Each structure stands twice: as structure tokens, then as C-alpha cells.
């Protein structure tokens, strides 16, 4: 039976999306894979040479004033915010019965038949970050409290059956993502993911996959023992691993937490090394550092977080500048948000911050800026220069011990 799979990315994640799509096709050649691209297509991209069957760019999604919407969101917020909208479009266009979303930094390591069978029973399937209580305070802080901040369910995976219930769910979720898909933990939001904490209370036809073989990641390794081998198959608690999540891979967080909670298992490090090699085979060095087109104004000057945040908060600015990326040839604040902000924006932002009546509001604003800077650091840490720098220090350390 044909089913559909998709992921949502910007161009720098194409290598990872290729690895994901190849792993899906290995076990399910009948699956149709959709690449949702929150970017413009690279000039070298040829769909006929890719493991993807379809490509949907963000400008083709049914988002009113899509340029305004994109501008209001960071890269992570944009890529997560389009997920329910793309899900609805895939179902509408292809009239498909079952659709599965995977984050691009996932790999399928076995057939998905158990998930497809579960979709005969439920309209919506979710995976919690943890399915077993932690036993140490350190793990509670690292994992359970982290889930309380970011969401009970990991939205790196969601599976949908085309039904009346799932359509109601997607209508609700897409509306929330269109209006409130922000990384604002002090304000109670974390992109598309935190909203799903409410879903079990709103929708009856919802299944939770608690088996340890789904969505294995560093945040649940304390209770999921990995064994086996890449050649013969990886086992989690003596059951065949279905899919693994390399979340935090580019920032280095994945490796740190793997060493902390998975150091007992040789096969998890073999899997990580294999993943690095597969990403390289699929163009990581060549396009893995490609900046998103929507990170810049039309004059190629990078958009900063304050410019996004102020625009997000001011409906009058959204009405005045429906295409905030646009830059006029001459300085004319009546036509271009870029010029308006240069003339007025910084002062407006500072005044807005100082006028908050609640400290939590100012904290939320500053937290958004911190998250933006973290995104920048993650990009820097995944660059060629940073990798060479790490190799140099590693070599220097080895030589100093001799």
C-alpha cells in the first residue's frame, strides 16, 4: 500500500533529508517522499536525481501574505510552523490515506509496518520524549524538565490517517502554527511542539507510541538499552530499532549527551559515525552551510532578530510592509521596512522592552534574542572552519602528550 512521508527543511539540510529519504526508500520503495523546502531551490537541484518524489516550497503553501509570515519567524520556527499546513496540502492534493512526518535528522532502520498498522486503529500517532520515569535527579533535569519546557511529545515524528478527526486536528494545529509558532519558552510556547501537549485532551482518536523502538534519542537513552550491530541490526531493549533521531547533531549537543547517557553502547557510536559518513556522501561539505534565502533582505543584508521581533509584534508594520524583505533603491521609509527600521526601529524596540509591565514579558523578549543567537552559534559550529578548528586542537592535544 502506498503511503506518504515528508520532512521540512531549508537548503542546508538537503544532505540530511537525502539520508532520511534513502532510508525510507530502502525499507519502503512504495512510499512517496515529499520535501517541504522553506527556502529557494539551489541551482544544482534536479528532482530526477534525488530520492524525493515531490518538492513543495514555502511560497506554494496556502499561507496568506506568506512573505510577511515568513519574516516573522526564525528558521526553526518557519520549518516547524509549516508542518501541519503541508500535511493538509499533501492529503488534499494526493487524497492519500496515511502520511508520516519525520524530522530531517532522523534515519529509518526497519520497516514502518507497525506504525502503518497502528494508523488503522488511530487517526493521530505521537511519540513522547520519555516513556519511563527517570531515576536520578540529573536525568530528571536533563530529560523530564527539558520536556516540560519544550513539550511532552517530540514532534520530530507524527503520523496521520486521513479522517474527519485528523482534519479537525490539522485545522486546529495549523491555525495555532500560523499565529503562535514561536520559540518563546518563558511565554509558554515552543514552536509547533508545545501545542501538542493539549492534543490528547482535545482529540479522542489519538494514539501514543510508547514502545522503546520509536524515536530513540539521547533524551530517552537512560531507559533504552542499545545492542546489536549495524550489520545485523540494532536492538533497543532487545527489540529491533525502528527509527533513530540525531537531534542536536550540528550543535554538538547530540555527541555530548550520547557520551553522557549512551557511553555503554558501542553500536550507538557506530551509528553516529555511519550517519556522518552518509551525510558527507550526500553533499554535507558542499551545501551543508548554505544560508537560507529568507535570512536576508533583498539587498543581501542579514535580518537580525530585533527586526523580526518588532515586525511580529506590530500589526501596523505588517500592514504597511506586506513584503518586509523588499528594499527600495533609494531611502524611502514609506515603502521598505528595511529603511523604516534603520530610521526608527532600534529606538522603538528599546522603548517597547522598557515599557513592559511584567518582568516575564521582557524576559520572553530577551529569551527570543538568546535563541536567535544560539541558532547563529549552531550554524558557526557546523561550519568547515569550526570542524577544522576542532581537528587542529585535537591533534595539538595528542602531540602534546607525546
Feature tags:
single chain, 402 residues, alpha/beta, Spore Coat Polysaccharide Biosynthesis Protein SpsA, Chain A, 2 domains, 16 helices, 13% strand, globular
Give the secondary structure arrangement, pairings included.
Layout: E1 4-9, H1 14-27, E2 32-37, E3 54-57, H2 66-71, H3 75-81, H4 83-94, E4 98-102, E5 106-108, H5 113-118, E6 124-126, H6 137-150, E7 157-161, H7 164-180, E8 183-184, E9 189-190, H8 199-202, E10 206-208, E11 226-229, E12 233-236, E13 239-240, E14 243-245, H9 253-261, H10 266-281, H11 284-287, H12 305-313, H13 315-320, H14 337-354, H15 359-381, H16 384-401
Parallel strand pairs: 1-2, 1-4, 2-3, 6-10
Antiparallel strand pairs: 4-7, 5-14, 6-7, 8-9, 11-12, 12-13
What structural class do you assign from the helix and strand content?
alpha/beta
Report the top-level CATH class of the largest domain.
Alpha Beta
Q: Major sheet: order of its strands?
A: 3-2-1-4-7-6-10
Q: Work out the helix count.
A: 16
**What distance lies between the first and last C-alpha atoms, to the nearest angstrom?**
60 Å
The H-level CATH homologous superfamily of the largest domain, spelled out, is Spore Coat Polysaccharide Biosynthesis Protein SpsA, Chain A
CATH architecture of the largest domain: Alpha-Beta Complex
Query: What is the CATH topology classification name of the largest domain?
Result: Spore Coat Polysaccharide Biosynthesis Protein SpsA, Chain A
Q: In angstroms, what is the radius of gyration?
A: 22 Å
- Shape call: globular
Mean pLDDT: 89
- How many domains? 2
- Provide the β-strand percentage band: 5-15%
What are the segments in which pLDDT stays under 50 over at least 5 consecutive residues?
378-383
Question: How many beta strands in the DSSP annotation?
Answer: 14
Order of helices and strands: EHEEHHHEEHEHEHEEHEEEEEHHHHHHHH
Instruction: State the major sheet.
Output: 7 strands, mixed
